[in-house]
Amino acid sequence: MAEVQEQATILKMENIKKAFPGVQALKGVDFELKKGEVHALVGENGAGKSTLMKILMGVYEKDSGSITLEGKQIEIPTPEDAHKHGIGMIFQELSLVPQLTVGENIYLGNEFKKSGLLSDRTMYKKTSEILSRYKVDHYFDPKAKVFSLSRGYSQIVEVMKALSRETKLLVMDEPTASLTKDEEETLYQIIMNLKEQGVSIIYISHRLEEIFRNCDRVTVFRDGNRVTTENVNNVDMEQLIELMTGRKVEEERPQESHKVQVEQKAPLLEVKNLQWQPRLQNVNFHVNHGEVLGITGLMGAGKSEITRTLFGVDQPDEGEVFFDGKEHKIKNPIDAINAGMALVPEDRRYEGLVLNQSVADNIALPLVGVKQNYGFVRQKEVMQDVMKQVNSLGVKTPTLKQQVRFLSGGNQQKVVVAKWLTRKPKLLILDEPTVGVDVKTKAEIRGIIKDLVKEQDRSVLLFSSELNEIIQLADRILILYRGEIIAEYSNKVPMQEDVLHRAIQGIIQ
Amino acid sequence: MSDNTTQPAPQGQLNQGKKSASFVRILQDNISLVALVVVIVFFSVSADGFLSLANFWNIGRQTAVITIIATGMTMVIISAQIDLSVGSTLALGAMLTSIALQATNSVIIGVLVGLITGLVVGLMIGIFVTKGGIPAFLASLGMMGVIRGVAMLVTHTRPVVIYNETYWRLFGDGVFFGFLPSAIFWTIIILVITHVILKYTSLGRYFYATGGNRQAARFTGVKTDLTIIIAYIMAGIMASFAGILQSSRMHAARPNIGEGMELNVIAAVILGGTSLFGGKGTIVGSLLGALVIGSLNNGLIILGFSTHVQMLVRGLVIIFAVMFAASDED
């Protein structure tokens, strides 16, 4: 009986195609999920796995292809339809209301009513039932407020919320990215329980070791195609990495070592013993004059934590920063900027741009405090600088007065870069500079970074989880793994992508 | 949060950018001007004596107080803040100025005392909001009560009579250059100063950036806390200066003046196209908004309606005007 059930197919996606302007994100993909299995989706960023999942969740509409759920062909035009069909997704950012209790969150939108009034008793009874059904009732009380729970427990609540709605199929997108080790174990336990209950799970993760622990089968995506689907017992990590990268040798060579004396001068930036528990442990690194230092690692490895502490947005527990020969106490972004650093943050929409203001105003913002007489902005000079940057970076905008929210992701990113170049920083810190950017603009932005170092003698600290980007741009590569720097590679001779792939998984040769 | 996951394709965004400038759209973008024209035309036809030079100066004088406070409030709202205490600050500024005038008979000292009052009030609210983490609405609501209380306490609610002819002429009944009522003169000065600050100084840019995206402004090295504190200080100073004008015209300061003023002022600013969410707005817009409210009050008085009817009509005009105005997100 159990075996028959395991064989039954719950979801079939056939020949799914989806194009975005300038990219064919999915080129006719098949995907099949069996009942009660945990099925991993792997692939590099931009391989198409999240596009496929967004189609399944009703976030994007497919261009062509068919979706069959339990033998019936269905359409999923909106997220509500996905819910109705019993498809749920755990997003990386949680969708809980912190001020409400566990029970209130789980049944938000599905409240229990008794003669028109809410019945808390039924709600908490149902909550207890569902928590004990999945054996998580010992972690927290149904009446606990969500803000009092740790990140990991909140994620469990999120899973329970999805399951309270007759969910048959659950998509988990990088569920462990922000969890501690203990919390991870808890999540794995829950996944086991869900399996026993017959829930089918699609598991997206860049951490391959997790996949071997938790999943039954794995499907590999590359460049908008499905490469293969394998039983996890039939592949090992090496093979998986080969399948993901396609063993492609990077065609594009990184820049030649353009300065012979690079190594001899004292470094521009030196970070010593940076500690920020529990996310960063004893991080040490330096950036030389005129080089690109690439730091890479899996999501949650601590990249954002390094940028935030280095730029003074958050205060670390410990750590010394030497910049341009002097020790700096960086307490806020202004200290960092005055020292000569600039940050292109990961989340350009929320941290990089004032979206409802014009291209010109955004680029001018770091400049208006400098180019001024007694508080009056030297408008002409500022606009000259703005024009210069817009032209040299090739920001595509109808006019300088266009609000930046109307620009494409890539051009928005160029605006963020442009605004910092006006200040001529000695060190440009880039956090995932090409995420969400179309292929063409991606190449342009990478070109800009190369020019900066080569022609303008700036230094760049590049945080990226796109390995080919790191290989293309960086002179040296550091591997960040669970808050520690576990390896350093010279990139003088271009690194093999699969070596890096293994390294970010914690396998150092 | 669904923003992250449902980013529309870039093409769709571009189309939005090239919205055709239809006639309705132009009207919507200039709603305060439209409202002003409608109000003026309506009363010119229906109210005898509305359309005259004398009444024009009248409206200007009556609107001066709202306009002046609105300039400060514009900066506060552009910074994505709100200040409910301006009516109380107006009263306290007037009271302390008058007391100082009585004591010293020096206009300079009196005015300085008044302006410093506004500065201190703004500084306090700004610190509560930025360093104390109190939401702007609550911080300024609390101060609205505190300041009104202090204004009443200083004389145990007795009015303070002012007898200083220089002061009267300078801020109250005087006429400058043979034709310009002093209240209007000062309004123009303040409009110019605040317009220049918003348009041509780095501080002005910081108001917009802080209100538009405080996080991004902070990442760009803008001292967002200081920017917000300065916005509140501007609002406080403008409110107390309005108190000076009002007390000068009445030749006395009463602790209960300016009650409900914050609503008139906020209405004028919003009517003028400043976004309550911050990051957007102009002094010219706020002036137009203030003129709408001023002419509305004036016209209704000429028509013989009571203050209750004025309140009612004003409320309706604000609701319809803002409803008709183009929302930024559509």
Biggest interface, chains and residues, is: A-B, 47 and 36 residues
Helix and strand composition category of chain B = mainly alpha
| Mean pLDDT figure of chain B | 88
The number of strands of chain B is 4
- The fraction of residues in strands of chain A falls at 25-35%
Order of helices and strands of chain B: HHHHHHHHEHEEHHHHEHHH
Cα(first) to Cα(last) distance of chain A is 46 Å
Summarize the structure.
The complex is a heterodimer of chains A (509) and B (330). Chain A is built from 18 helices and 24 strands.
Overview of the molecule:
The complex is a heterodimer of chains A (509) and B (330). Chain A is an alpha/beta fold and 509 residues long. Chain A is 34% helix and 26% strand. In chain A, the strands form six sheets. Chain A has a six-stranded mixed sheet, with helices on both faces. In chain A, strand 23 (476-481) and strand 24 (484-490) form a beta hairpin. In chain A, helix 6 (151-163) runs parallel beside helix 7 (181-196), helix 9 (237-245) packs across helix 18 (497-504) and helix 14 packs across helix 15. Chain B has a single domain (42-329), classed as ABC transporter involved in vitamin B12 uptake, BtuC, CATH 1.10.3470. Chain B is 73% helix and 2% strand. Chain B is built from 16 helices and four strands. Chain B has helices spanning 2-5, 10-17, 23-29, 31-46, 53-78, 86-104, 107-130, 136-153, 165-172, 182-200, 202-212, 214-219, 224-250, 261-271, 283-302, 307-324; strands at 160-161, 175-176, 180-181, 252-253. Chain B has a two-stranded antiparallel ribbon with strand order 1-4. Mean pLDDT of chain B is 88; it is low at 1-19.
